[in-house]
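Hey team,

Filing this mostly as a record. A colleague (T.K.) asked me to run one chain through the structure pipeline before their review meeting, and I want the input and output archived in the tracker in case anyone asks later how it was produced. No errors, nothing strange. Just documentation.

Input sequence:
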Amino acid sequence: MRNARFAGTFYEKAESLLSKQIEECFLGEKGPGITPTIGTEKIQAAIIPHAGYIYSGQCAAWAYKALAEGGLPDLFIIIGPSHHYKESGFSMETFETPFGFVRVKQDFARNLAEKGHLKQNETIHLTEHCIEVQLPFLQYTFKQQIDKIKILPILISEDADLKNIALDIKETLMEMNLRAVFIVSSDFTHYGPNYHYVPFSENVKQNIYDLDGQAIELIKNQDQKLFLEYVDKNFSNICGVLPIVLLMNLVKSEKILLEQYYISGDLLDNYRNSVSYASLIFK
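Output structure:
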């Protein structure tokens, strides 16, 4: 069992307050303006931010609105960066949130591990926030089917063989005849002295927008070679670079939509330090 480690910091700890907080993310000025409605549209994947809800929640709401419109799959494979370890791996622990429990699809995890390129690693998940902060949104979005939500939480670091991990995941899904939706948990540019990243000091807002815009266009073009070249050239500190590249190996999308984008500086009207948030949907 993995307790709700970040309840009370990244999001509200009390169930009623958390429900209200997420509802306000959907209905807020930068949110989609409506709460999610379950549908049957084909959705393959989403890139969703993972900061505190007061910052990135309204951006994340756009992605969850779209995921709702795709209906509940057999499995959500949630892929995030390992912020604290240079190791990759998945967790098989049940996650607890103020809304209840989110369970791992154990048979899928075991079958994937047998293929050899991605293993269970509970240690790297203990202090990680990027998976946990997605789960209350997922439970709120699919509240009518909350007990049927199944996940596989994966953290990716430099040791990962991305191409072979992607092949293992796709083969396991095919062999088990499962429909999965992929969620990549990632923020974009972290600008400012707090993040040791100050590539410019004038026209900061526009330059951050331009920097993120280049990355987003390369993601929409599904060009992982140019995306990685962009990351190296700009010393980009997008935290989910490797999970995004893994996603590019997992899905080929007919249409990728940028649902929402803004930066924390917009909310605070202060651009000395700022983190960028984007919700992208892969159809």
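Quick notes for T.K.: The beta strands are 45-48, 75-81, 89-90, 95-97, 100-104, 150-156, 180-185, 190-191, 256-263, 274-282. The mean pLDDT is 97.
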